[in-house]
Write a structure and sequence with these properties.
The chain is rod-shaped and about 205 Å long. The chain has three domains: 40 residues; 112 residues, no CATH class; 213 residues. The chain has ten helices and no strands. 80% of the residues lie in helices and 0% in strands.
């Protein structure tokens, strides 16, 4: 009959479990438990401030074993969170003492050393008959240890245990009273310490707030100063960028001017070379004329010698007539010779003057070019030293290209050379003035 009832019970239980009714009931009970404990403050209970006795730990262990045996996992977790246990049931190994006949699974049992410790704490000798019967009953049957102990306890033992429990309770009350007094003393001391520490913290807070305020004021002042400095630096940077831009523009213009001056110098050199060629041609022409004059003089001397010989041979009358005629011819030839000789001397003198002027112009051009190179080097050095250079006004040089033809006169050539020399002197004066202004600006 009982086996049939148990079979029916297991069938109904399995059916409810499959339908989810049991899980819903468990969820509802857990929700009610959480709802009941939600507004209850369990942090100020007296038990947490006092030490537990050994028997109290054993009682908690028996209750936990009871819940563990019946798989009340949620209740066991809540119980272990409020009453810390000596054993972590998650890490306890199951002893294979027996199997469930219905399900064929290994049941959860405490280890034998834990069971012996529980019996010794409760005053039961594990080696005696009562202890051995409890161990055997717990190992062979699917019963928690608490039920095994209750089966073996006699009424006399219950009375004796009640007396012992009353004595223990009295001792516990006295012990708890002493602990409460000690706890109150400790609490009062801790309160005084906390008050002193609180005062110190308040003082430190005021000091820290004052220091923080001073530091904030300093930081604000520094930030204002830094902003002003940044504005000044930004203005200086803008000015420097403008100066650099102007400097680059003027430097480009100056390079263009230098290039133009180089082209002009090359043009002047070509003009001077053409003049030299013309002068050399004129010198060759004069040399040829000189040779022709020498040849003419030699012929003239020969003619004079022949004339003297003829005078001796011809009669005196004829000689006088002929002498008059020949003297007139010789006089005309001699006058033409003197004129040509004077012209030749004048041309040679002009040639020498032109050669001297050309040499002087070449030396002056070389001096000016060396002076320009020196000024350019000085300018590059000063540019590397300082970036605040303001270029002066561009040196304006009038470009007068005069084309000298081969048929131009000597006076025109001399006049042009003098004009060019004067221009070169003016340009050198302007270059010196520019260099002087540049040095004064950089020194300032």
């Amino acid at each position: 009959m009982e086996s049939a009832m148990e079979a029916d019970y297991s069938t109904v239980y399995s059916w409810f479990d499959k339908c989810g009714i049991i899980s819903n009931i468990r969820t509802h009970l857990r929700y009610n438990l959480v709802k009941a404990l939600r507004n209850k403050d369990l942090s100020k209970t007296f038990e947490k401030n006092t030490a537990k006795s050994a028997k109290q730990y054993i009682y908690d262990l028996l209750v936990a074993d009871y819940l563990w045996n019946y798989n009340y996992v949620y209740t066991l977790s809540v119980f272990s969170s409020e009453a810390p246990l000596l054993i972590n049931f998650n890490n306890v190994k199951c002893t294979q003492s027996g199997t469930d006949e219905n399900h064929g699974k290994v049941k959860q049992k405490l280890q034998s050393d834990y069971v012996c410790h529980v019996l010794e704490t409760l005053g039961i000798e594990p080696r005696k008959d009562r202890g051995q019967s409890i161990l055997k009953d717990y190992a062979e049957n699917d019963v928690p240890l608490l039920l095994c102990l209750l089966r073996q306890i006699k009424p006399t033992d219950i009375n004796f245990s009640n007396e012992n429990n009353e004595r223990c309770e009295a001792n516990n009350v006295e012990h708890r009273a002493m602990q409460t007094e000690e706890a109150e003393n400790v609490v009062s001391k801790e309160k005084s310490k906390i008050i002193v520490a609180k005062k110190k913290l308040i003082q430190q807070k005021h000091l820290f707030s004052a220091q923080l305020q001073r530091k904030e004021n300093k930081l604000k002042e520094q930030a204002a100063i830094m902003e002003e400095q940044l504005l000044m630096l930004q203005n200086k940077l803008d000015q420097a960028e403008k100066l650099i831009y102007n400097y680059n523009v003027k430097e480009k213009e100056f390079k263009d001017n230098i290039q133009q001056e180089n082209m002009r110098i090359l043009q002047r050199e070509t003009e001077l070379s053409t003049r030299e060629k013309l002068l050399s041609q004129e010198a060759n022409r004069l040399e040829k004329e000189r040779d022709s004059y020498r040849h003419f003089e030699s012929n003239l001397t020969k003619l004079q010698n022949e004339l003297t010989k003829v005078k001796k041979e011809i009669p005196y009358a004829d000689r006088t007539l002929n002498n008059n005629l020949k003297d007139a011819e010789v006089q005309t030839d001699f006058e033409s010779f003197i004129l040509s000789r004077n012209e030749r001397n004048i041309l040679s003198q002009e040639k020498q003057d032109l050669n001297g002027l050309v040499v002087e112009q070449q030396s002056r051009i070389e001096q000016l070019t060396s002076r320009v190179v020196y000024l350019l080097r000085k300018l590059e050095e000063t540019q590397l030293r300082s970036h605040k250079v303001e270029m002066p006004s561009i040196i304006k040089v009038t470009n007068t290209n005069t084309i000298i033809s081969e048929n131009s006169s000597t006076e025109d050539i001399l006049q042009d050379a003098k004009m060019r020399l004067r221009r070169l002197e003016e340009e050198s004066i302007k270059a010196d003035q520019y260099y002087f202004n540049f040095i004064t600006n950089t020194s300032q």
